[in-house]
Amino acid sequence: MHIFRYFLKVFRKGSFWIVLMYTVIFSGISAFFSTMTTNPTEQAFELEQSNVAVIDRDHSALSESMTEFLYSKATKVDIQDDETAIKDALFFRTADLILILPEGMAQQLQAGQTPELISYQIPDGTYGMMAKQLAESYLRTARAYFAATGDFQTEKITEDFADPVTVQTTGQAAENHQTRAQVLFNFFVYSVMAVMLFALPAVLISFHRTDMRRRNAAAPMGVTRRNLMILTAMLVISLGIFMAFSLTAFLLNGSYLLSIRGALYLLNLLVLVIVTLTISFLVSVSTKKGAAVSIAQIISLGCAFLSGSFVPQYMLGDTMKTIGAFTPAFWTVKANDEISKLNTFTTDTLGTYFQCIGIQLLFAIAFVSIMLLLGKRRRTEA
Hints:
Elements: H1 2-14, H2 16-35, E1 51-56, H3 61-73, E2 75-76, H4 83-91, E3 97-101, H5 105-110, E4 118-121, H6 126-149, H7 154-160, H8 165-207, H9 210-218, H10 223-253, H11 260-286, H12 289-307, H13 318-324, H14 328-341, H15 351-381
Parallel strand pairs: 1-2, 1-3
Antiparallel strand pairs: 3-4
Helix pairs in contact: 1-8, 1-10, 2-8, 2-10, 8-10, 8-11, 8-12, 8-14, 10-11, 11-14, 11-15, 12-13, 12-14, 14-15
């Protein structure tokens, strides 16, 4: 326990207050960026603001009723049934969604089949996505009415969708939390790495001084036990940093994190903490104390820019994505982005998320392997 207490003592005297200050500052910056995220509560999911063009190739009573229904919920855009006109409308953003009702749609529904709607929308466009979901809901409802009554009951469907307030409010709240949580945890990638890489290597380097290594070699305590105590002390500090940022997330998102989605965000953050812990070990055995702070800044900032912590990954170029894929932070951000897209949580839908978690852990194993090789060489030199 002597080395454990000594490690915490060195940390308390040399880094604790600076780490606490950085944690508060970075938590505040993270909170600022997350609250500055576009708030969909006021206008983002008001479907009336979306521009929708419907091309009716079925020309049935159902398709005409559906077209009229969609135009009552959105702004109507008239375009020709022509590939060039469709591309122009999307390029100039005249329409958020272009929906084509295929020929034979009503007959397919009568046969109990689900017709495939042909749609074109602006990439990552929220308005188009919501309008398409509404169209699909209309078809599902029509099929259900036909199965039960033998008629599509188009007037009844319109009545069912007449009051959008309750549905919109629920969607607004959920999406608002998703967006803010996603931005918050993505910025945490930089914050956690910056704080941990500033604090831990500086303390660890003091144990790697030549005089300290020789003194420890002559001590009766074994190398394994000594390293275990150092690792325990680092885990305590790392978990403290993890809890501090988790508390910030809870304060900003409330009970939202007490859900499966929130648990996935926190698990991903914990894996990042573990990976950063291994990087701290690697930095401590490969650099001197004077260079540790500079290297920590380079690693944290470099990973943040390449991973999508500051800028969303979909806005990064292909070259940056390729380079960023060689950093663990890239997969942390990708996992956060995957969480925000999920509506259901099953082994199939969570496949990509756990793949990102696994890749991060592989990075941790690689860093530990390199650290052990460098540590062995240092012990030989001592």
